[in-house]
Specification:
This protein is α+β, with helices and mostly antiparallel strands and 620 residues long. It is 37% helix and 18% strand. 43% of the residues are buried.
């Protein structure tokens, strides 16, 4: 059992660091820190059982520093008394003495404050694997502790998003303890790379701090025992007067398991060599060891400044083969939001009341004028593009007063449902009636719909496994909130837009730009993010070309089933191949169809394989 026990570990989002991951993070962070006057000062603000501090100790001891020197230079804070005791014992066992590890709240500490018998200094290096705790799970924390998180962010000059993950506050607060020229190396969940709350964090990391490297793995999960995909990040505190000098941000993906990459020879030498490969170089790279995307720090800063509060999708640089930028960097592509209105499917806020089936309609004789057909995602045919009627559920839409409804089936239904107790949910509370819950949501008539249904021809799944195809209706239909609809803009007909969303180029965009943070490795194509995904621009085509495009797509829609990369025979049919070659040719021939399929299949396979390995490790 880890220090503090499993309940405390779960509540605080604590997951202790595997040795190889600790060694790599330490090598990345400590490289170049050795000085003539003594070892660098190092802080782990959430040191847990001391794995990172122990790795730092070994790294520096191998360079000739003495035990007494290292005990003076290593600091740790840890909320859990049991974990702090374990970390202290682990370091003291290397030569006696008392390392400076203090139990208590990091957010109650300040630079220059007296902690125990010493003043908290500025640090040359800060390393950490801080707790991860998404905002919806932070309600279980002490309210005073949660308030301190936001106060600490404010002192760092940051206005964090309300949904900021706990680890983000550790970065905000730790930045104030870092010397100019000092370096910070953290292990974090990968989810922030595609999260809305990340804008404030990204702004800090390309501003007061200078993010230089983010490291992921396509070969494994760094923490296989937990359902969290993680990355390593490396940043330095910069001198505001130093200037930009063409700073670059490297997104590095390990393509073989870490244990293989550091096997053979002396361990520290192998880790150090890998760390240098990760940190050095300014050119893109893709081989059996690493894939590296390089972007401009100044460019990212400008993009964040141009759209305040809107986070950049940095995950794509870790998941994308180099062919992705080669393809979508051309003028034939635009963002989906430029050619279509993207919005969430129907969200009733109280399905038990607003969704009715035929038996309910007949039982109360609800009039047709109060009903709008809706299709649930589970009722659709995932093995087809074009969808049939699939009628079986309706939305109850009544905006008339009770006086106007006298003697109607609608009023009988309203009265019968008003006093019914709702199923217990966090947002509604236990023991409340449907009327109480809906009245609390506002909107005039308590039974009036809280959202307006929007029929559309084109629907895209929010959760994607191995099938990317759009769901199409010849007659526009309403679908539930598990899908997003896309409605053409600027007079564009729906079929040309549906055609380019059918092409495998858009499947490639979904795979790379989607958030790989859902269960079982599924991708999430969140509504706001989906608007930014690249898509072939059908507006650049003349009328004859649009007709040719639609003709090719209709063959796919009517004669082939959607491409499923989870199947052993998951290869494109002749119709899809013809469509893809047509689109790629008009995109400038930057990528062959065969390369597109290979890179898409490889990206999907990696996502699913790593998720399955994580589930297998958890089961053991």
């Amino acid at each position: 059992m880890r220090p503090g026990g499993p309940d405390e570990q779960t509540l605080l989002g604590q997951f202790y660091t595997p040795p190889a991951v600790a060694d790599l993070l330490v090598a990345l962070t400590l490289e170049g820190s050795e000085g003539e006057a003594g070892p660098p000062t190092i802080l782990d603000p959430a040191c847990g059982d001391g794995a990172l501090l122990a790795s730092a100790y070994e790294w520096l001891a191998a360079r000739g520093y003495l035990h007494a020197q290292l005990l003076e230079s290593l600091w740790g804070f840890e909320l859990s008394q049991a974990a702090a005791t374990a970390a202290t014992a682990a370091l003291a066992a290397r030569g006696g003495g008392s390392p400076y590890i203090l139990a208590g709240d990091f957010f109650a500490r300040e630079p220059g404050q007296i902690a125990g018998a010493r003043e908290v200094p500025g640090f040359d290096r800060i390393i950490g694997n801080p707790p991860y705790l998404r905002s919806q799970n932070q309600d279980d924390l002490d309210p005073a502790y949660r308030a301190r998180l936001f106060q600490a962010a404010a002192r760092a000059g940051v206005r964090p998003h309300a949904k900021t993950d706990l680890f983000g506050f550790f970065i905000y607060h730790a930045s104030r303890f870092l010397k100019i020229g000092g370096r910070l190396g953290f292990i974090t969940p990968a989810s922030w790379l595609t999260s809305e709350y990340a804008a404030a964090l990204q702004t800090l990391l390309v501003g007061e701090l200078r993010l230089s490297v983010i490291v992921s793995s396509s070969a494994e999960s760094f923490f296989p025992e937990v359902d969290v995909h993680t990355v390593l990040l490396l940043a330095e505190r910069v001198d505001p007067a130093a200037g930009e000098r063409g700073a670059a941000l490297r997104f590095v993906t390990l393509r073989r398991p870490l244990a293989e990459l550091i096997a053979g020879g002396e361990r520290h030498d192998r880790v150090r060599a890998l760390a240098r490969e990760i940190r050095e170089g300014t050119a893109p790279r893709e081989d059996e060891v690493l894939r590296v995307h390089v972007v401009s720090v100044a460019g990212e800063r400008s993009a964040l400044a141009a759209a305040p509060g809107v986070a950049r999708n940095w995950s794509r640089h870790l998941r994308a083969p180099l062919s992705f930028e080669r393809l979508f960097g051309g003028p034939a592509f635009t963002s989906l939001g430029q050619v279509g209105r993207v919005a969430l499917g129907y969200k009733s806020l109280q399905n038990e009341f607003y969704y009715v089936d035929r038996a309910t309609i007949d039982a109360y004789s609800i009039e047709a004028r109060f009903l709008e057909p809706i299709v649930m995602l589970g009722d659709l045919d995932g093995l087809a593009y074009l969808q049939g009627p699939a009628e079986g559920r309706w939305i109850f839409l009544c905006r008339e007063s009770e006086d106007a409804l006298r003697d109607t089936g609608a009023l009988r239904y309203i009265n019968a449902m008003a006093g019914r107790t709702v199923a217990q949910r966090k947002q509604s509370g236990a023991g409340r009636t449907i009327r109480e819950v809906l009245a609390a949501q506002g909107g005039g008539l308590w039974y009036g719909p809280k959202a307006r249904p929007h029929p559309a021809h084109i629907w895209l799944r929010k959760a994607i496994d191995t099938v990317y195809a759009p769901l199409l209706f010849k007659a526009a239909r309403v679908v539930d909130q598990r899908c997003n609809y896309v409605e053409p803009l600027d007079g564009l007909a729906w079929e040309p837009l549906a055609a380019v969303l059918t092409a495998t180029t858009f499947a490639y965009a979904l795979e790379v730009c989607g958030a790989a943070s859902m269960g079982a490795g599924a991708l999430e194509a969140a509504t706001t993010r989906l608007r930014t995904y690249p898509v072939f621009d059908p507006r650049m085509l003349n009328t004859a070309e649009q007709a040719e495009l639609v003709g090719l797509a209709r063959v796919v829609w009517t004669q082939e089933r959607p491409l499923d990369l989870g199947r052993a025979d998951g290869r494109p049919g002749p119709g899809l191949l013809a469509l893809d070659r047509w689109v790629l040719a008009r995109a400038g021939g930057r990528l062959a169809a065969e390369q597109l399929y290979e890179d898409l299949h490889g990206s999907c396979d990696t996502r699913i394989r790593v998720a399955r390995a994580r589930r297998s490790a958890q089961a053991r």
